[in-house]
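Translate structure to sequence.
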């Protein structure tokens, strides 16, 4: 089984998002949307052939109804279809996930004339965000962004946890400082203003090394004065091993549940 977690630059139009969810076919397992980020994350999981079919159908639907013109949102983005990682849920299938990434990248660039940057073992997503079109040329497609659709970062990666810690009584500057202080090789962080709160947005990329509760506690130790953790939010799905590794009494605090695991959604 393989997972594809497609990040798109639309998080406000419910009718459009519902139509896009229908276009994702039988592989769709979860949708997470945020109107302030103006971004949605569609999690698709299936065997290789069915997943590739549904991913291509979904991406085609995105380009039929979305553009970057007038798009506004607090999350960084450079494409309508912004980030497309392929994940081998069985670690022995990594080579196949790389092949699926490359096949989809070539198809997308040829079908829509959209530049595609690849990431994985030798190049990270943050590197693409920093250097795309500024010394780093696309791996597929034209050398400049599409005027309507932008560009795509398409990757192969291990399973990770996309997870947000939302703070009250905290400025953006303080949240940026906290995000920097808890950032490690295993925990990537950014900070945003999201409505009435500021958010420390985390990607835990080595789930065998660090747990959500450990990151939560590191953030809590940084807080001063009236600053508090208001809530935590899972983006997409997580492996059941992450939930099982935590003290059950902390799951609600951490924004985790057995119902939002890959294993339960794939039954």
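Result:
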């Amino acid at each position: 089984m393989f997972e594809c977690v497609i990040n798109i630059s639309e998080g406000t139009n419910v009718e459009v998002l519902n139509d896009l969810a229908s276009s994702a076919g039988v592989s769709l397992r979860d949708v997470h949307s945020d109107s302030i980020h103006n971004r949605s994350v569609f999690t698709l999981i299936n065997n290789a052939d069915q997943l590739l079919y549904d991913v291509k159908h979904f991406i085609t639907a995105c380009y039929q109804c979305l553009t970057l013109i007038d798009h506004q949102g607090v999350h960084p983005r450079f494409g309508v279809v912004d980030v497309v990682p392929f994940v081998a849920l069985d670690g022995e299938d990594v080579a196949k996930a790389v092949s699926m990434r490359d096949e989809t990248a070539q198809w997308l660039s040829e079908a829509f004339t959209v530049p595609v940057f690849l990431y994985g073992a030798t190049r990270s997503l943050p590197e693409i965000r920093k250097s795309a079109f500024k010394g780093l040329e696309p791996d597929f497609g034209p050398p400049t962004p599409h005027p309507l659709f932008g560009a795509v970062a398409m990757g192969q990666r291990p399973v990770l946890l996309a997870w947000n810690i939302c703070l009250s009584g905290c400025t953006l500057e303080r949240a940026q400082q906290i995000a920097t202080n808890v950032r490690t090789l295993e925990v990537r962080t950014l900070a945003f203003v999201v409505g009435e709160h500021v958010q420390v947005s985390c990607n835990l990329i080595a789930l065998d090394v660090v747990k959500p509760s450990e990151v939560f506690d590191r953030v809590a130790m940084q807080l001063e004065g009236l600053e508090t953790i208001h809530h935590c939010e899972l983006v997409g799905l997580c492996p059941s091993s992450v939930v099982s590794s935590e003290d059950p009494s902390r799951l609600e605090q951490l924004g985790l549940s057995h119902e939002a695991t890959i294993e339960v959604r794939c039954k």
